[in-house]
């Protein structure tokens, strides 16, 4: 897979969708492509996060650690982003992630992401826009839930 | 003991016989010089004008020799040799030949005298430099902290240098030149008393006037020396204080300071030039006045027949020789004053109020019996140079085998107490005794071997980890070097002549017994043991993996590494991790290695084969052309340049991404942008040679797996392997030493141990590849029993200037390791673990105390709570010993101690 294909995948991810392809290319070029074997952990619940992962190929299980061992709550596949909250604010990982198959990801580190936002403020505005959308969605869901409750 | 303040006395004292011999040579040479002056007259009068030849065919005796003083002894002249009868032309030839041989004899005299003088000067310079350096080694510590290292270095290196040139001339030159001048003057006198008197008068006038004009120059010379020395000191500060200068943005302040200093130096030097050249001008003028008088006065005397022409010519010839010695004599005098000033100013700096008695450092001193018995401090006080008390009447008694912690706030006198205990400072009053011995009276052989002291900023000497560990054992030569490597008897004799000691650096200085070893064979074991106590083994192991060895001198290590090479691939395969290392294979392209590495398929041994240089390397260019790859490389370069121009376009110059990721530096980006635009508009064919060359250079650093631009596909890979083969053939034929090729069955001397074992590249983008490989590597090395070998290679790691290639923690651990290796009776550690985090400190203290069970340790601690591990605690406050006792005692009753613990 060449860097141009990676850029294509990045563009399908909402927080990156409106960003200038040249910037995405820089981000892809400066990022490491990381391959995990089935069963290998990307990170563990409770660790401080330093990177987000974009799934380029393969599947990943989202696991929540419980008393009876990890519980799978979701499975992510191509073109999805994992752990993006960790690169936006300093909170511990809320779940563990494990490769469910041979998994190829693009690892976007927090440092790189912040550098990019500092150097290209319009990228920050894009991210804000996406986050505001999500907030609006969550608020609506909350309102619906309250009305229902 | 001060140094001789007068350089003449110093020189005379240390070189009398040599000086006298040179003087003798000078005196012997003078008659020849006189003869050579007289000869021109004889040649003109007898040889050319034919005086004394009555006519053609007449002869005269040549070289007729009478016995000196024969007439007064025997009443009549005694003829020793009747001489040869020669006709006029033969006489001319004979006289001219005599003239020629005199020239040769005079030249030989000069040659011998000058080399003798040179050797004498160098010997004295060597002696002086040694004495000055020796004094630095004998400066007490408080004194040494007050001097600027760079100033001391310039003094020993530069300021005494002119002394060497002068020393040989100190006595011989004035006598030689004075003799020459007097000879010339006497000769003139003999020819014509009046002309002689004129010449003498002018010389006397010069001798009177010139020194007076020079006085100011000398004052300036002194200032020049001081300002230059201070400049050296300031430059040293610029380097030592670099962090503060940058952190405070004071570079411009420093520039202003430099400008002011250089301005001052310029003024001084310029004034010196002005005055020096004025003196020169005056000198030359006076020197030319005399010939003017000779031509006029002597000419008149010759015309009136009072002087024959031959004599006049000889007088003028002799006079030609007179100004030169006089001038040199004046120069000598100037140099004398100059050198005297330099000498005084240098030795002044080497006369501190106190010097350590050389007897205390004498090489014959013996460490004697182990230091045992009570450690008694009574009324120990220490004042600083301004008489401010640092320690006030400290008294305590302990066993020298106890583990003692010293705690207190900074400035409480802890540091001074530990320096006193180590015998590195002398108390101002009071006494400190170990087993009845006054510590400050013990020779260095005892304090330096029976006691180990480690300070907070322990210094490491440039060189290997091994040498820094062993440094604490090098007190005196233990085993003489074999004759082939030792300093020759001739060189030793020469060094004695310069008052240098009879110590040979090539001997083995390592005191193996002190370290508990028998010799070279088992000292490594001791070092590894110490390293494990101070927790440096893993560091040494890592250093070893990045180190290189010479497989010729260590064939067993190389064989072991080759075994590890085979073993690691097996082990990776069994754990399903064989994809983490992509091995080098002669007929396969390695997508995890750069294009350059793939082409060379080896480690460059010559600088022109490193990857940055390959594009301009003639051999490589020829190969690319032969393999038909040149255009492909340019095309690849275009793709890389396009990508770089695209993605780095909006980044400001100097952005760290350029350094981290770009193939193209920010400076070169605009140039490549122009090239890319040109290619877009007109195609690759439109590029000129320079642009093509630039593009050609880009693909060499390209790693397909990492950069993912899709430039090297399977078919390109095959063509690159073809080029690899061509290059290998060419290199083996033309320059076999340029590249050490990767060979699966051979050790690569130019590559590190780790690279030799892996024999490939770590695959990019495999999660936890490095950890897995690191772990597997260690397992393999342990299986083969090679871990120790790797650590031993790690001992050769160069620690850099002042240990700069080590981290602060590693430096402190290494310093403690050095102190432990010599098995001291008393180990004194002065906050020497302070940069480590708490848990590492605890680990270190515990492992050291364990090792030192039953042997003395005194440790000044930054964290008083760590003191619980010690048998006795001394609590310092404001220079006093305020509390002492065990940890339990102090926990219950020690008010200051509790405050200190609480303050943490």
Key attributes of the depicted protein:
heterodimer; A: 149 residues; alpha+beta; Jelly Rolls; 4-stranded antiparallel β-sheet; 6 helices; 8 strands; 44% helix; B: 904 residues; ABC transporter transmembrane region fold; Rossmann fold; 3 domains; 6-stranded mixed β-sheet; 35 helices; 20 strands; extended
Structure described in brief:
The complex is a heterodimer of chains A (149) and B (904). By secondary structure, chain A is an alpha+beta fold.
Question: What is the general shape of chain A?
Answer: globular
Uncertain residue segments of chain B: none
Number of helices of chain A: 6
User: Which runs of chain A of at least 5 residues are low in confidence (pLDDT < 50)?
Assistant: none
The CATH class of the largest domain in chain B, by name, is Mainly Alpha
Widest sheet, order of strands of chain B: 10-17-18-7-19-20
Let me know the number of strands of chain A.
8
- Spatial sequence of strands, sheet with the most strands of chain A: 1-8-3-6
Tally of helical runs of chain B: 35
Multimeric status of the protein: heterodimer
The number of domains of chain B is: 3
Q: What is the C-alpha radius of gyration of chain B, as a whole number of Å? A: 40 Å
Instruction: Tell me, rounded to a whole number, the average pLDDT of chain B.
Output: 88
Percent of sequence in beta strands of chain A: 25-35%
Structural class of chain A: alpha+beta
Major beta sheet summary of chain A: 4 strands, antiparallel
Helix content of chain B: 55-70%
Number of strands of chain B: 20
The CATH architecture classification of chain A is Sandwich
CATH topology tier name of the largest domain in chain B? ABC transporter transmembrane region fold
Strand content of chain B: 5-15%
């Amino acid at each position: 897979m060449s860097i141009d294909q990676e850029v294509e995948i990045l563009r399908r991810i909402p927080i990156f969708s409106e960003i200038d392809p040249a910037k995405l290319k820089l981000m892809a070029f400066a990022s490491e492509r990381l391959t995990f074997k089935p069963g290998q952990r990307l990170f563990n619940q409770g660790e401080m996060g330093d990177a987000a992962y974009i799934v380029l190929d393969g599947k990943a299980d989202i696991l929540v650690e419980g008393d009876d061992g990890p519980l799978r709550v979701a499975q992510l596949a191509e073109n999805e982003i994992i752990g993006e909250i960790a690169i936006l604010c300093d909170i511990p990982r809320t779940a563990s992630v494990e490769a469910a198959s041979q998994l190829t990801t693009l690892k976007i580190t927090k440092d790189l992401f912040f550098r990019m936002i500092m150097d290209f403020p319009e990228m920050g505005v894009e991210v804000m826009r996406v986050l505001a959308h999500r907030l609006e969605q969550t608020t609506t869901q909350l309102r619906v839930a309250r009305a229902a409750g | 003991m001060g140094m001789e303040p007068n350089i003449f006395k110093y020189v005379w004292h240390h070189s009398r016989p040599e000086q006298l011999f040179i003087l003798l040579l000078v005196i012997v040479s003078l008659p020849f010089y006189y003869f050579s002056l007289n000869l021109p007259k004889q040649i003109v009068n007898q040889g050319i004008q034919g005086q004394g030849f009555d006519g053609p065919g007449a002869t005269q005796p040549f070289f007729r020799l009478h016995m000196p003083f024969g007439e007064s002894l025997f009443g009549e002249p005694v003829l020793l040799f009747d001489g040869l009868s020669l006709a006029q032309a033969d006489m001319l030839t004979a006289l001219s030949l005599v003239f020629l041989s005199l020239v040769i004899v005079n030249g030989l005299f000069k040659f011998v005298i000058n080399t003798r003088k040179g050797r004498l000067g160098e010997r004295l310079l060597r002696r002086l430099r040694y004495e000055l350096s020796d004094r630095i080694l004998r400066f007490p510590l408080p004194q040494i902290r007050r001097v600027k290292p760079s100033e001391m270095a310039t003094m020993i290196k530069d300021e005494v240098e002119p002394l060497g040139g002068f020393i040989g001339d100190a006595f011989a030159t004035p006598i030689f030149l004075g003799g020459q001048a007097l000879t010339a003057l006497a000769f003139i006198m003999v020819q014509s008393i009046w002309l002689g008197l004129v010449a003498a008068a002018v010389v006397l006038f010069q001798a009177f006037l010139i020194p007076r004009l020079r006085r100011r120059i000398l004052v300036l010379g002194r200032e020049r020396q001081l300002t230059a020395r201070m400049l050296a000191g300031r430059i040293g500060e610029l380097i030592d204080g670099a962090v503060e200068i940058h952190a405070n943005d004071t570079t411009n302040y420093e520039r202003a300071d430099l400008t002011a200093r250089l301005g001052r130096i310029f003024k001084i030097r310029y004034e010196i030039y002005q005055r020096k050249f004025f003196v020169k001008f005056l000198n030359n003028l006076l020197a030319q006045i005399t010939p003017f008088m000779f031509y006029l006065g002597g000419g008149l005397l010759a015309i009136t027949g009072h002087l024959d022409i031959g004599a006049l010519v000889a007088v003028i010839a002799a006079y030609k020789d007179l100004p030169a010695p006089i001038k040199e004599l004046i120069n000598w005098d100037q140099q004398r004053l100059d050198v005297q000033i330099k000498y005084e100013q240098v030795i002044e700096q080497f006369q501190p109020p106190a010097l350590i008695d050389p007897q205390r450092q004498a090489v014959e001193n013996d460490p004697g019996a182990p230091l045992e018995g009570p450690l008694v401090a009574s009324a120990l006080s220490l004042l600083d140079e301004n008489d401010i008390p640092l320690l006030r009447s400290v008294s305590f008694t302990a066993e020298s085998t106890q583990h003692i912690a010293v705690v207190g706030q900074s400035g409480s006198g802890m540091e001074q107490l530990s320096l006193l205990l180590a015998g590195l400072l002398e108390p101002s009053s009071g006494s400190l005794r170990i087993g009845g011995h006054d510590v400050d009276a013990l020779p260095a052989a005892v304090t330096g071997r029976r006691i180990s002291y480690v300070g907070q900023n322990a210094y490491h000497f440039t060189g290997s980890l091994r040498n820094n560990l062993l440094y604490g054992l090098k007190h005196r030569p233990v085993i003489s070097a074999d004759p082939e490597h030792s300093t020759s008897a001739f060189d030793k004799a020469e060094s004695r002549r310069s008052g240098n000691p009879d110590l040979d650096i090539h001997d083995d200085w390592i005191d193996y017994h002190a370290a508990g070893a028998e010799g070279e064979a088992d000292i490594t074991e001791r070092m590894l043991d110490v390293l494990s106590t101070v927790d440096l083994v893993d560091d040494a192991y890592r250093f070893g993996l990045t180190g290189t060895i010479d497989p010729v001198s260590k064939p067993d290590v190389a064989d072991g590494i080759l075994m590890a090479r085979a073993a690691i691939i097996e082990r990776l395969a069994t754990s399903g991790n064989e994809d983490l290392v992509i091995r080098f294979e002669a007929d396969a392209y390695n997508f995890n290695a750069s294009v350059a590495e793939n082409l060379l398929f080896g480690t460059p041994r010559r600088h022109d084969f490193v990857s940055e240089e390959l594009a301009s390397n003639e051999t490589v260019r020829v190969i690319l052309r032969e393999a038909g790859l040149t255009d492909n490389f340019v095309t690849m370069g275009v793709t890389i340049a396009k990508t770089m121009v695209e993605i780095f376009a909006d980044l400001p110059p100097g952005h760290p991404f350029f350094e981290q990721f770009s193939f193209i530096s920010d400076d070169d980006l605009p140039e490549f942008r122009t090239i890319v635009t040109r290619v877009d508009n007109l195609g690759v064919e439109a590029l000129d040679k320079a642009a093509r060359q630039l593009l050609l250079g880009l693909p060499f650093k390209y790693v397909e797996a990492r950069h993912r631009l899709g430039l090297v596909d399977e078919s390109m890979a095959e063509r690159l392997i073809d080029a690899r083969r061509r290059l290998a053939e060419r290199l083996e034929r033309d320059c076999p030493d340029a590249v050490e090729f990767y060979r699966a069955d051979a050790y690569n001397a130019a590559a590190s141990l780790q690279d030799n074992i892996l024999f490939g590249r770590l695959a990019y983008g495999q999660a936890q590849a490095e950890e897995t490989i690191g772990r597997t590597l260690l397992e393999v090395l342990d299986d083969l029993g090679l871990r120790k070998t790797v650590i031993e290679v790690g001992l050769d790691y160069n620690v850099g200037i002042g240990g700069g290639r080590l981290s602060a923690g590693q430096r402190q651990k290494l310093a403690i390791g050095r102190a432990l290796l010599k098995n001291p009776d008393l180990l004194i550690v002065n906050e020497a673990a302070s940069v480590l985090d708490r848990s590492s400190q605890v680990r270190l203290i515990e492992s050291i105390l364990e090792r030192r069970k039953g042997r003395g340790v005194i440790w000044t601690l930054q964290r008083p709570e760590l003191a619980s591990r010690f048998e006795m605690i001394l609590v310092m406050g404001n220079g006093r010993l305020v509390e002492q006792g065990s940890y339990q005692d102090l926990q219950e009753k020690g008010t200051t101690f509790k405050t200190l613990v609480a303050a943490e």
